Amino acid sequence: MIRLKTVVAAFLLVAFFAALTGATAAQGLTPSMSQPSAEQPAVTGDPSPNDIRELMRLLSDREMVEWLKNRAAETGQGTSSASVTSYRETVAKLIAGARNRVHDIVTAFASLPEGIETLKNRADEIVPPGRGLRAATYVVIFLFVGAGLEWLFWQYFQPVRLRIEISRPERLAHRFAAAAGRLALAAAAVAVFAVGSIGTFLAFDWPPILEWMIVNLLLGVVVLRAVIALCTFLFAPRISRLRLVPLSEVAARQAYRWVVGTAFVWVGGLLIADAPRRMAVATNSGPGGYATAEAVAGIAGIITSLVVIAAIWRLSPKVRAAEAATGRHGRRLSRYNFAPVVQTVLVILIMVSWFGGIQQVTGTLIIAALVLPLLHLARVLIDHFYDEAERPLALPRRGEPGDTDETVSATQDPLAAVTSDSSESAESGPAAAEPVVDRYDYQRPIVHRLARLLIIIGSILALGAVWGVNILALSSTSTGLGRVAGIAVDISAALLVADLIWTWAKTAIDRRLEETGSIQNDLGPGPEARILTLLPIFRMTLLIVLLTVVGLTLLSSLGVNIAPILAGAGVIGIAVGFGAQALVRDVFSGIFFLLDDAFRVGEYIEMENLRGTVESMSLRSLKVRHHRGAVHTIPFGELKSLTNYSRDWVMMKLEFRVPFDTDIMLVKKIVKRVGAELLANENYGKHIIETLKSQGVRRMEEFNMVVGVKFMTKPGAQWVIRRDAYQKLRDEFDKNGISFAERNVKVQVVSDHPLTEEQKNAAVGAAQNAIEQQIGPEGAAPAPDEP
Amino acid sequence: MLATVAAGDYHPRQPGHREIYTGMEKKLRIATGIVLYIFITMHLINLALGLHSIALIEAAKPFLTGPWSNPVGGMLLTSAMLVHMALGLGSLYRRNTLLMNRSDTAQLITGLAVLPLLVPHIVGTVAAKYAYGIIPDYPLLIHYFWIGKPSEGLRQVLLLTVAWVHGSIGLFIWLKLRSWWPQYGHWIYPLAVIVPVCALTGFSEAGKEAFAMSAPPQPAGNPVTQAALDGLATVSWWCLSLFAAAVAGVLIARAVRLASHAGETEIVYAGDKTIVALRGLTVLETSRANDIPHASLCNGRGRCGTCRVAILATDHPLPDPGPEEAATLAHFRAPQNVRLACALKPGGGTMTIKRLLPADILPAEVRDFSENAHGTGPGPAEEPVVPSTAQEVAT
User: Fold this and answer.
1) B157–A140: do the CB atoms touch at under 8 Å?
2) What's the rounded Cα separation, in Å, for the pair A443 and A441?
3) CA angle, A213 as apex, A212 and A219 as ends, to 5°?
4) DSSP, res A32
5) B246 vs chain A: nearest CA distance in angstroms?
6) Could you tell me what percent of chain A has a pLDDT over 90?
7) Which of A164, A431, A460, B258 could covalently link to A394 via disulfide, CB atoms 3.0 to 4.6 Å apart?
8) Residue A113 near chain B (CB below 8 Å)
9) How many CB atoms neighbour CB A660 within 10 A?
10) Which carries the bigger pLDDT value, residue B214 or residue A109?
11) Rounded mean pLDDT of chain A?
12) Which residues of chain B are within 8 Å of residue A134 when distances are taken between CB atoms?
């Protein structure tokens, strides 16, 4: 379930945790009072040249090298027990350090006013009060210079921003470009401000402590402004069109205020917490000074965390309501809202661990608290982004009278006027069912997974940084815990990447299949037919390859030596390859036939003496159905040449035999008319590329002329057109008194007296013989196969 | 520019005394503002010479600050300041809402902040000269600001910032509507940054020089005594109290005035939201308060006419346009149902309006819209079309 409220919580947590990280990092820089400097190793001088020469001599000695190797092996065996004790020692040391730190801070809390007074007095010795005021004067000057430059920047770029803000982005790319352009402008303005203010600052020389504080102050202002720019980018409190989170106007404004307010408290807290720390460093005021500084930082931290908790509780119901209004994909919200409780507990835990001074635990908690909200945030952002990209299609444009319903509904309730945004997005639910709208649907899961992958990798790297471990080199460490962590990292990375690739490929392939499958071709397959055959094969291959690679990665990261498997697979591959040479040939020639686009499913082909319609293809063979129903299965390897009768066009030539006295012009006219009739036929007229036309007398025969006609159609349609053409021509010829030539033998009797019946029969019989001799039995041969 | 329009097609009635007074007031505000701005600019340029040396500041003083120190300049400056302040308080009184856009907010706050920051400076220089005969010169003042009393130096820097911001906002809003602005405006913006930045760096460089001085400089006239300082502090205190009382009085009067307004108006933005306007707000102020993009180049001062709206329907009689609004509308030869959003205060009921100009209009584009913008509104055909008038007015 998406917890949308975590979106806002994430921001607050980011701000807060960043504060603590900054604090802990700064604490790491200063010598901590719980670790006295006596523990630091004594400084040793460089060895003399003589010593080095002696060492080199020893190292070149073969016996010496052997002895060293043995020693190294022995100590290597001993590390496992040593590491167990070192873990315990580490924990004990951490606990002791935490106890000391808490004790020091509590003591410092008790005497906080005096401690601050002491620090202040010591700081006054270094920096007299007038100097501080002068520093403030300088800070005002720097800020003015920065602000002036920024003002100048806006004078030239304000029209651009205004244009972006009132634009109505309609496509995904435009929308993102608008929001990003606005962010870029804001970022550029902040950069100009930073360059102006910090640049002027650099032109002056400063005593170190003042320099530190002024830099802090300027950086604080810049960071705060950057946070504001980012919040404006995300929440867009004034312009709902550019908002990237699915919040209503009121909620977005509130979230914006809370986040910016929290950032303000955070930056202020950092500045205030850092000042006594700097003073303590600059004045060398010893453990007491550091404890006071930590106490001040603690107060700042407590205030910040209180603000964070307040923000979480304040915003949670609003965000929840907005989420209920958005209601994506029928996901239902649980009745009770646990997220703010969990987040509050986490914030308190982080604060406690910070007081304990255990940086690793603090860091881990921070990352743990951030990962889930960040994942949710990414999910919500991406979903909203795509939803919004699809929405404008369903909504009328500005100035058109279409959105009066909305204004009417808004007038009934004054609050609704501002929340109308959320109602709009709720209304867009049914509109989202339109087919145009899911054009981004196949991108969505990929982007989701990519974001998830990046966040998880980022958090793992951050965890590694917190614990001071190089994640990438983890699997080569010898400690048990490190190995387990390394294996987990390897496995999860492999799984995530494989999942990403698989989702991408699967959605892409399925989408293409769906598209091509939905195209109804009543006649001859289009170019999509090949995709229908290739894609499933490709998908299956990819799945097998991915599974194999991931499996091997898992095995290798678990420590199984996969070299034998690979070698075995290679050997078996070779053996199988020899054995299944024909199979391999079939598979490859099949792939190449498909690449050549020699045939597709549904096409009528002929190879050697087999012909029929392609019904299906497997990896190895091709199934062809003869038009009389027989099914031929032909392995691809057996195919040498192949004739395809279903490509582009078919030319059909017909012949008629007419007597010599036929009016050829009339025939031409009749053919032309019939051609027009055929073209006008509603069933097959659209398949005719060139309609029936006369080719005139093709040749003269003994007793008649052969008139040729021809037409060109799309493949598959020629038979029915030929049928009709014959029929119509016959009828038309009949009507116009043109008879087809009939085979006849004229028997010329050179005699001046009438023949007897017997003589006639004899003459007819002789003519019959002549006919049979002339034509022969081959004239009656069956026509070639035609479907 | 617009105020020079004498004859228009749209004059429902003769302007009353009050409207004539308002027109005068606007001119007066700009005039006094420009006087003050010129003074500040010259003063700052003088200060910027500190980049070279304090001596150069002092040497340039007769030319840059001098013209304002003689009786004529002094009178002009003082009266400009007083008039400008009074007008500012008057406009605060007439403000219907304190929810303004950014530049108006900045202008109001800086305007109110100028005097408290300025009083000690004036008292310390002018009053000290006339009441105690202390003639402060630049070496003395800079030493005082940087070393003698750094808090005063900080105050000076704040004063400079606030006064310059206030002046620049007003000046640029006025400048943007000049006809030559689209061509030359881009060259003027940097000046508005360079002058104060140079002045501030000059001030800090002069401060460095003051640090290097061996002994604090002495004033040219009488020596500075504790009594003089105390007296000056008393004068400052009185001035500040008076000012605070005046501001408080204006705010109270404003509250009383607003309380007398009644009725809420529902404004339907054609093709956009419907807003329930708070009492007494102009349409433009309502747009601003509700984040509805609305063109307005002069920030609601009734000068530019870019905020004009077509009244598509209303069930409540609207107040007649004042002379300024009428003049501006006449300039654009607007039909009867077109009004200026910045001047129109709907009295109640429901009103449907249509914004006529795009919210991102630039000064250079105003003229394009003045010639063809009213194709959408009903009734432009009744208006006599006199192209030559439009040309005259636009130039």
Assistant:
1) yes
2) 5
3) 90
4) P
5) 29
6) 6
7) A431
8) no
9) 11
10) A109
11) 75
12) 146, 150, 153-154, 207
Helices (H), B312-386: 323-331, 366-372
Highest mean pLDDT among A34-38, A681-685, A724-728, B360-364: A724-728
Q: Which residue of B has its CA nearest to A201?
A: B201
ipTM of the complex: 0.72
DSSP letter, residue A31: P
Q: In what order do the strands lie in the sheet with A688-700?
A: A650-658, A705-713, A688-700
Return the sign of the alpha-carbon dihedral for residues A396, A400, A405, A410: positive
Stretch B148-174: mean pLDDT, rounded?
Answer: 88
Half-sphere exposure for A681 (CA within 13 Å, toward CB): 19
**Tens digits of residue pLDDT in A567-597:** 888 888 888 878 878 887 887 888 788 777 7
Asked whether A721 and A700 are in contact (CB, 8 A), the reply is: no
The whole-angstrom separation of Cα A95 and Cα A289 is 23
Burial class (CB in 10 A: 0-12, 13-18, 19+), B195: buried
Say how many CA atoms lie within 13 Å of A74 toward its Cβ.
Answer: 6
The residues pairing with A64 across neighbouring beta strands, listed in sequence order, are: none
Tell me the shortest Cα–Cα distance from B100 to chain A, in angstroms: 14
CA distance B263 to A12: 41
**Chain-chain contact of B291 with A145 (C-beta, under 8 angstroms):** no
Query: What residues of chain A lie within 8 A of the CB of B192, using their CB?
Result: 148, 151-152
Q: Identify the pLDDT of residue A314.
A: 85
- Whether A77 and A83 have beta carbons less than 8 Å apart is answered as no
What B168-173 contacts at long range (C-beta under 8 Å, 24+ apart), as own/partner pairs, is B168/B192, B169/B103, B169/B106, B169/B107, B169/B110, B170/B29, B170/B30, B170/B33, B170/B107, B171/B33, B171/B34, B171/B37, B173/B103, B173/B298, B173/B299, B173/B301
Structure tokens, A383: 């979903």
B201: which chain A residues are within 8 Å (Cβ-Cβ)? 141, 200
Q: pLDDT higher for B232 or B96?
A: B232
Task: Give CA–CA dist A659/A638, Å, rounded.
Answer: 50
Q: What's the half-sphere exposure (Cβ side, CA atoms, 13 Å) at A274?
A: 26
Nearest chain A CA: its distance from B283 CA (Å):
17
DSSP assignment letter at A708: E
The C-alpha atoms of residue B176 and residue A159 are separated, in whole angstroms, by 13
From the CA of B48, how many Å to the nearest CA of chain A?
Answer: 13
Residues 112 through 151 of chain B touching chain A, CB cutoff 8 Å: 146-147, 150-151
Report the C-alpha gap between A315 and B153 in whole angstroms: 44
CB A337 within 8 A of CB A320: yes
**pLDDT tens-digit profile of B338-378?**
888 888 877 777 888 888 888 777 777 776 665 444 444 33
Question: How far is the C-alpha of B177 from the C-alpha of B30, rounded, in Å?
Answer: 13
> In this structure, how many other beta carbons lie within 10 angstroms of the beta carbon of residue A655?
12
Determine the Cα–Cα distance for residues A450 and A444; give it in Å rounded to an integer. 10
Q: Can you give the pTM of this predicted structure?
A: 0.61
Q: Could you tell me if B348 and B264 are in contact, meaning their C-beta atoms sit under 8 angstroms apart?
A: yes
Beta bridge partners of B311: B353
The distance from CA B90 to its chain's CA centroid, rounded to whole angstroms, is 12
Which residue did the predictor score with more confidence, A104 or A727?
A727
**Cβ–Cβ contact A405 with B under 8 A:** no
